[in-house]
Amino acid sequence: MANDDAAVLASVGSRLRALRRQNGSTLSRLAESTGISVSTLSRLESGERKPTLELLLPLARAYQVPLDELVGAPPVGDPRVRLKPISRWDSTIVPLTQHPGGLQAYKMIISVERCDPEPRTHEGYEWLYVLNGRLRLVLAEHDLVLRAGEAAEFDTRLPHWFGSTGEAPVEILSLFGTQGERMHVRAKPRGAQETPAEPSQGRTAAFRA
After folding, report:
1. Average per-residue pLDDT in the chain?
2. Dihedral angle of Cα 108, 111, 116, 119, to the nearest 10 degrees
């Protein structure tokens, strides 16, 4: 445990230097905003000065980052995911996974304004599950409406778009894999030649390029 603490403290200097350069600041400007002398800041970054709470708190405020991020402290067993909503494409997107690569999970609240289809293509595979409301999914020649409890999965190399039906917002879960990872739940639409309609309750529709 002592070795772990020492390793954390030893990495603080390089983190402070990287943050300062990332913010385009100088030691002089940082000294003015924190009240810490230039020589002390320089020794902190070089590892010659041991970081203390009295020094790190004003630096965390100056960089506008949490103290644990500044220190780079290891996880302490808290399983909770810190959710940070993102506003994009007339939607509120909440990433549910924390690590890059592989499958990524999102919760999305799509506003009623997102109702004009703009199909696009890209590498990957996506699975959608409707939590609340009605989701319109345009996929190649298909134009579907999914209700709460229904799901769809598809190859994103197909032209696709999803959004509101224009009646009310819709809340969904999305699983996306950039390398084409597929989910385990899959079922073909009823009838190969059948004109797509609104899927029945609880069904998953799968589409492939």
Report:
1. 79
2. -10
| Residue closest to 152 by CA, chosen among 110, 105, 208 | 208
pTM of the model: 0.52
Gyration radius of the chain over CA positions: 24
CB 67 within 8 A of CB 15: no
On whether the CB atoms of residues 36 and 55 are closer than 8 A, the answer is: yes
List the one residue out of 58, 60, 68, 120 whose CA is nearest residue 89. 120
Of 69, 71, 91, residue with least CA distance to 82: 69
For residue 141, the tally of other CB atoms under 10 A from its CB is: 9
Encoded tokens for 180: 């084409």
At 32, which helix (H) or strand (E)? helix 27-34
